[in-house]
Amino acid sequence: MFKQLPIRFIYLLLIGIGLGLILGFKSYIPFAYWNEEYSWARYALPNIINYSVWPFFVPIIYFVLGTFPFKESSTYKLIIILSSLVIAFTHEAITNVIFFGLLDLADWYPFTDEVWMQIKGNFLSAMITRLAEYWIIYGLLAAYDFYKKYQIKAIELAQLETKLTNARLNALKMQLQPHFLFNTLNTISSLMEINVKSAQKTISKLGDLLRTILTSEPKQMITIMEELDYIKSYLDIEQTRFHDRLQVDYQVDEKAKSAMVPTMILQPLVENAVKHGFSKISGEGVIIIAAKILDEAMLEIFVRDDGRGSALNSEKLRQKGIGLRNVEERLNQLYNGDYQFTITTSINSGFEVKIRLPLKYYHEKDTHTGY
């Protein structure tokens, strides 16, 4: 418990003793000025004991804060309030025992029935002071906890931005890799002799694809339709290159069109479908890209091909496939485990990757970078 504190315990203890000395001296100054015959210890000692005992309760308060965060639920509020009363009561009881016990041992102020009545008479007002001190400490710890969570979120956001940048660079790298460009340029060259319009169309699609990668705003989330605009440019080129042996079936529900998905989340999946599924067969092939709403709460998207499939199980495919692993890592960071990522495949039965995400629609305020 002590290791989790925002400040080392020894420093808390020194701060407590320092506050006790300062406030004790402050209380003693008026009586010293008026030449009252009261010892300095009578005013300094209670403060020193009070603020020296608090560091031992700080870990408990921090534990309560972490275990029962202050939420709107009345149960949480009741727990926090009860803990403040218990800690304030216990603190005041301990400080009285130490203070009057020391006075009695030193024969400065014998513990008598009159002293006991004095303790009981002052206990309620002292309790109010202890409660005020408790909430000051609780507020400071809550502020630190909020700051720490803010820092964690900022780091996570920075990591997401880095992953998004990497995803964009990887996409650019994959699309600009020599074999892709050479194959596309060879296709254009062949078409120029037999079908100039198709060649011009392919050049236009290649330009659109590169423009999308290089000039699009780097947002974390975009709509399904924005994602598919990029995918379609890529697949149009591949369809031309494979002389229309490749068929693409887009199955997007009307309600799903404005649903939000992580940017370029489908690109590695479609790339795998072409590279490992369709390009390995000699006949025609079909890639299905689908999106639909489940129970008005979840978005389901999947990429499926009817290629050769794989004999590896889901876990090995995740480890072996860099694209699959990167997709799942991004999903985990964005949704903190609140998603489903499943792979279904077998030999000669195609390959399917299905993703289920919490449903979120487009809003103007969500358009900023790092959404």
Automatic annotation (TrEMBL):
Sequence ranges assigned to domain Signal transduction histidine kinase internal region in this UniProt record: 167-246
Family matches, as Pfam families: HATPase_c, His_kinase
UniProt keyword annotation of Transmembrane helix present: yes
Membrane-spanning residues: 9-28, 48-66, 78-103, 123-144
Histidine kinase/HSP90-like ATPase domain span: 264-360
GO molecular function, one term: kinase activity
Gene3D superfamilies according to UniProt: Histidine kinase-like ATPase, C-terminal domain
InterPro entries the UniProt entry points to: Bact_2-comp_sensor_kinase, HATPase_C_sf, HATPase_dom, Sig_transdc_His_kin_internal
Keywords: Kinase, Membrane, Transferase, Transmembrane, Transmembrane helix
Name of the featured protein: Histidine kinase
